[in-house]
Amino acid sequence: MKQRNQQAYLNSEVNLQTNERKKPNTPFTQYGDLFYQNPSNFMEITKPSEQFETQLWLKSNQQIKNNSSSNLIHNLVTQTQLIQTTINIFHEKYDILKILKENQQCQIVQCRNIITQEYVVAKICILHNFKFGVDSEIKVCQTLQYYPHSKLMKLLEMFTDKDTHIFIYEYMEGGTLFEYMQHKQLKLDESEIRIIFKQLLKALNHLDSLNIIHRDLKLDNIMFKVRGDIKSLKLIDYGFSTLLSDVQGLESRCGTPGYVAPEIYEKSHAYNQLCDIYSLGAIIHILATGKRIYSSKFTSKEICELNKQNKYQISINKKCTLLYDIITQMLQNVSNRPSAQKCLFHPYFIKLSELNNSEQINQQIYKLQFPQFKNPFQSFQ
């Protein structure tokens, strides 16, 4: 009974933002939260999806094929022909199987390639009132096409017309990190935490090298390609991602309360890739303890205020001092927060045998610097 209560506690914390997106008893994988507003406006976006006026913009394949007026264009064709310029091609190539999630601005649907029978996920976006956000995601995805990484979900292709943009991503059938924690009853082994942690840091380090900020790291935006294989982990959802060079994109203040770096809330302060390090620190704390750094006993408005002031609470067992130390560093103010690359060199990721060897070397160096001479006054026997 205690374990069941603990799991319900985590579920209530992690799903603070999920009122409008989760559908019960769905047989398909749920993807990460999408299109959050400014964290300070969180209360405005928690209405159930049934209260939204649904826009009938997802038509059947045959209806779309017969609609010749939707064939043209945003001139977004790249040299690699990554972007197709007609939505008709999408409906000729893919069958829509299931709506996984939807809100006012987009739908996430599971599709199947008609020729190869491969499963994919399509993110279908309405461009009106959301044009800039889509453009930012396009720039990030194009950059990742040229510089891919095994721990970042792969974009396969894009389709666009004057009203709609469709991203085709690889299908992650292994479920989310949150679902994995539920399956493990909120108890991850130390070795599992270290493997997951290191993979995510490598993904962030790659994004850092490309001057990309993700801005929405959380349990639901981490998925597995293969169910039960934690080494198949990938970071997903580039809806809030932006380039550091995109000044207009950096003006956006976005993310999920409880994971957001405090500097994101401050409109007068600039921010950079280190905001993702803060979010990852909050995630690793959940993996290690089953609890969030901002408890669900607070209202959503109170969580936003605590998050803004960085008044978090660490519940981690201090017996694991190295893990406690690195999480604490990642949750510091931005001026003292380490980069992903620096985190990868933290002693927490060094094998115990290597630490022992290092200690032996330090002792040998100490002996060389301070040799122990024989006491000339000691009597001989």
Automatic annotation (TrEMBL):
Q: What are the GO MF terms of this UniProt record?
A: ATP binding; protein serine/threonine kinase activity
The UniProt entry, under Pfam families, shows: Pkinase
User: What are the recorded Gene Ontology BP terms?
Assistant: mitotic DNA damage checkpoint signaling
Cellular component (GO) terms are:
cytoplasm; nucleus
Q: Which residues form the Protein kinase domain?
A: 94-349
Q: Which domain of life is it from?
A: Eukaryota
InterPro entries documented for this protein: Prot_kinase_dom, Ser/Thr_kinase_AS
The protein in question is named Protein kinase domain-containing protein
Organism of this sequence: Paramecium sonneborni
